[in-house]
Amino acid sequence: xxxxxxxxxxxxxxxxxxxxxxxxxxxxxxxxxxxxxxxxxxxxxxxxxxxxxxxxxxxxxxxxxxxxxxxxxxxxxxxxxxxxxxxxxxxxxxxxxxxxxxxxxxxxxxxxxxxxxxxxxxxxxxxxxxxxxxxxxxxxxxxxxxxxxxxxxxxxxxxxxxxxxxxxxxxxxxxxxxxxxxxxxxxxxxxxxxxxxxxxxxxxxxxxxxxxxxxxxxxxxxxxxxxxxxxxxxxxxxxxx
Length: 241
Ligand code: URA
Prior knowledge:
Its EC number is 3.2.2.27. The chain is an alpha/beta fold.
């Protein structure tokens, strides 16, 4: 029964969001009244009175729930919401979950993810827990194809909400798809990586996607330049030049 209520809540929330995106202004849903999570339900399945306020990532994740806004939900195993620090000063945005992420429900855990983790840990001297990592689309596109326009359009409100909750100092767009989704169609990764742009009034710098670097290791040099630029912007010490 609790599961049914959660799904109903998700449908209502998605509908309200869809209306908002179409420019309507529906009556506000007081998410602090209805946003329960699995954890809140407790072992004995009783909803607890401890509820999430609407400006937390957990409440947002609960409200996205079992999203079926686009066709990507058909084949996904897990919706990959994102993970990391809600107070992160740096957010990494990739394009969409791969196979490993679809299986685990966590972003950037496959080979490209391992490289991103090395960049964060060895390059920046941070940990994955210090930053926030997510994707433009939250569900795995079959056969690792690029996410399609309608899929990106449906999912962007979720990314925007994540960003508005975290309010990072810098967003690092990983690759062409993330760059275009946030910065517009004229964005070109080869021309525009390493430059500062703005998304939701937050500075954005795009670099090559780690999967691209695995294929073309010579791109490492440019990625390291971009990482250093981000570190400078965040006031972090840059080692090795
Ligand atoms: N590639 C992405 O863009 N995102 C992931 O989460 C994993 C691989």
